[in-house]
């Protein structure tokens, strides 16, 4: 009996000495004792300034009160904590100063802290992925110290984590004494995290509000660079989240030709890093936030079925997001341009094809032109998988510029080839009486009418025009 107890005690001691070498046990035991010496914190916390957005000139050192005054930490302003992801080069990537600069532009008095965990972030991916736990612990201990030592409110803290950094931010948020204000996850890493339990990845419990941008989730679950499942209160999937416009090889070559190799790292991880640039855009273009719309799927969104703003169904993407905490995490979608400013203007278009003869055509291309009070956007191409007599079709189109209030819509039915004899001789066509358009950004519904009561849309022929006949807001009947 006694022998056994001894062994248990010995094992226990052994176990304890093993675990104290890891951060968790150290953090919790030190929190109890209240005299953490912080010696084992490897991550570094650089306070950048609007004058020096690129270099880490001044470090806040946990346990060293003077470092905080020495770096001119402003105790009455909010604090952003930027956490980078995996790195091949062991250096900060070019987006870091861009994000820091944009944060200062928007919030000039804020404290912007860059967490340096570069040495742990340049290991083999699975090793670096494992380090997100200790990095999160480092950040949490630092933040807890800052708040205890100076009474700095955790409600003033916003973490921004990219890729692996998003999960480090999540771990950190789960270990702070009280919940911090917000975590923004910028395309949180997928491999090793897609199926991980909430405590080891970013999750909605990690802050008062967690918003996530998913920009590179192409591939099978667990394999894609970005995590596919929603992990925040609001999860936004720009352009469906798989892949971003302007990020294919052809675009990359074009960009190298025009801009040189300077931002090479950006090209390689174009879609992954787009999450950061979308956020930067939201900081810089304050007056025009892009809107994202709640939707059950990318497919439903592409049919234009989700452009509603009722009951918090739409939200601003990025910095000015409304802190909506639904019971279930909600997926939101939007389209963007391929470069800054990323904002586009979304429209749902509904067409009903009339005819006495039953006609069905598949994979037909329509060209839509929208004319508004400010500008026009012509020949927006849309492929309809099917066109049949007496059926209504709904689809999404978007313009890259604000064309103002809609006045007129033109529709053209493209022929299958440049010159098609079958289109020339046959008179394949449908009648269209009205076109219904709903604008996502203004939430206005407008009905456009044919000038001849019914216009005939013929394949391969001239566009047909429809004039605004009434605003749906004036008419109670639902569209
Ligand atoms: C600290 O920030 C506040 C706004 O949060 C600002 O009014 C004040 O001037 C700042 N102090 C210093 C020393 O920059
Ligand atoms: C389409 O509907 C109209 C009006 O209801 C009808 O007259 C016409 O025969 C229908 N066409 C076909 C092909 O069913
Ligand atoms: C317009 O067409 C519809 C359907 O063919 C018809 O019922 C209606 O009377 C027409 N209206 C006018 C003003 O010609």
UniProtKB/TrEMBL annotation:
Residues 1-21 form the signal peptide. Keywords: Calcium, Cell membrane, Chylomicron, Disulfide bond, Extracellular matrix, Glycoprotein, Heparin-binding, Hydrolase, Lipid degradation, Lipid metabolism, Membrane, Metal-binding, Nitration, Secreted, Signal, VLDL. GO terms for cellular component: catalytic complex; chylomicron; extracellular space; plasma membrane; very-low-density lipoprotein particle. Residues 345-468 form the PLAT domain. It is found in: Cell membrane; Secreted; Secreted, Extracellular space, Extracellular matrix. It is a peripheral membrane protein. Its main location: membrane. GO terms for biological process: cholesterol homeostasis; chylomicron remodeling; fatty acid biosynthetic process; high-density lipoprotein particle remodeling; low-density lipoprotein particle mediated signaling; positive regulation of adipose tissue development; positive regulation of chemokine production; positive regulation of cholesterol storage. Tyrosine nitration after lipopolysaccharide (LPS) challenge down-regulates the lipase activity. Its EC number is 3.1.1.34. Pfam families: Lipase (PF00151), PLAT (PF01477). The keyword Glycoprotein applies. Ca(2+) binds at residues 201, 206. The active site is at residues 163, 187, 272. It comes from the Eukaryota. InterPro entries: AB_hydrolase_fold (IPR029058), Lipase (IPR013818), Lipase_LIPH (IPR016272), Lipase_N (IPR033906), Lipo_Lipase (IPR002330), PLAT/LH2_dom (IPR001024), PLAT/LH2_dom_sf (IPR036392), TAG_lipase (IPR000734). Homodimer. Interacts with APOC2; the interaction activates LPL activity in the presence of lipids. PANTHER family: LIPASE (PTHR11610), LIPOPROTEIN LIPASE (PTHR11610:SF3). Belongs to the AB hydrolase superfamily. Lipase family. This is Lipoprotein lipase. The gene is LPL.
């Amino acid at each position: 009996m006694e022998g056994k107890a001894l062994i248990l005690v010995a094992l226990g001691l052994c176990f304890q000495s093993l675990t104290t070498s890891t951060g968790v046990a150290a953090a919790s035991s030190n929190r109890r004792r209240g005299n953490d010496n912080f010696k084992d914190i490897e991550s570094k916390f650089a306070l950048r300034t609007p004058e020096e957005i690129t270099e880490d000139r001044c470090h806040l050192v946990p346990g060293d009160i003077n470092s905080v005054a020495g770096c001119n930490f402003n105790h009455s302003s909010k604090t952003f904590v930027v956490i980078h992801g995996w790195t091949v080069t062991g250096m900060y990537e070019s987006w870091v100063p861009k994000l820091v600069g944009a944060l200062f532009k928007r919030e000039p008095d804020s404290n912007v802290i860059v967490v340096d965990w570069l040495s742990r972030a340049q290991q083999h991916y699975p090793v670096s992925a494992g380090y997100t736990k200790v990095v999160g612990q480092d950040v949490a201990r630092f933040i807890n110290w800052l708040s205890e030592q100076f009474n700095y409110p955790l409600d003033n803290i916003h973490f921004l984590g990219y890729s692996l950094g998003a999960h480090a931010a999540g771990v950190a948020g789960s270990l702070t004494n009280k919940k911090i204000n917000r975590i923004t996850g910028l395309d949180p890493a997928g491999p090793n995290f897609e199926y991980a339990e909430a405590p080891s990845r970013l999750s909605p419990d990690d802050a008062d509000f967690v918003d996530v941008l998913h920009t590179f989730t192409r591939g099978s679950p667990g394999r894609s660079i970005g995590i596919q499942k929603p992990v925040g209160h609001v999860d936004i999937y720009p352009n469906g989240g798989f892949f971003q416009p302007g990020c294919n090889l052809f675009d990359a070559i074009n960009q190298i030709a025009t801009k040189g190799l300077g931002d090479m790292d950006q090209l390689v991880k174009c879609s992954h890093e787009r999450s950061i640039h979308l956020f930067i855009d939201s900081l810089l273009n304050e007056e025009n936030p892009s809107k994202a719309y709640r939707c059950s799927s990318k497919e439903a969104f592409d049919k234009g079925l989700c452009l509603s703003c009722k009951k918090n169904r739409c939200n601003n993407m990025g910095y000015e997001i409304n802190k909506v905490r639904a019971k279930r995490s909600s997926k939101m979608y939007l389209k963007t341009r391929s470069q800054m400013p990323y904002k586009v203007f979304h429209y749902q278009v509904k067409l009903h094809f009339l005819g006495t003869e039953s006609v069905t055509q598949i994979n037909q291309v329509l060209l839509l032109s929208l004319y508004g009070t400010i500008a026009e956007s012509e020949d927006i191409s849309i492929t309809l998988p099917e066109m049949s007599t007496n059926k209504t079709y709904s689809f999404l189109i978007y313009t890259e510029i604000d064309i103002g209030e809609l006045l007129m819509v033109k529709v053209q039915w493209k022929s299958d080839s440049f010159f098609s004899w079958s289109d020339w001789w046959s008179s394949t066509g449908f009648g269209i009486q009205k076109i219904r358009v709903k604008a996502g950004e203004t939430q206005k519904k407008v009905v456009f009418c044919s000038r001849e009561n019914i216009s005939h849309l013929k394949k391969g022929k001239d566009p047909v025009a429809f004039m605004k006949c009434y605003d749906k807001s004036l008419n109670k009947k639902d569209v």
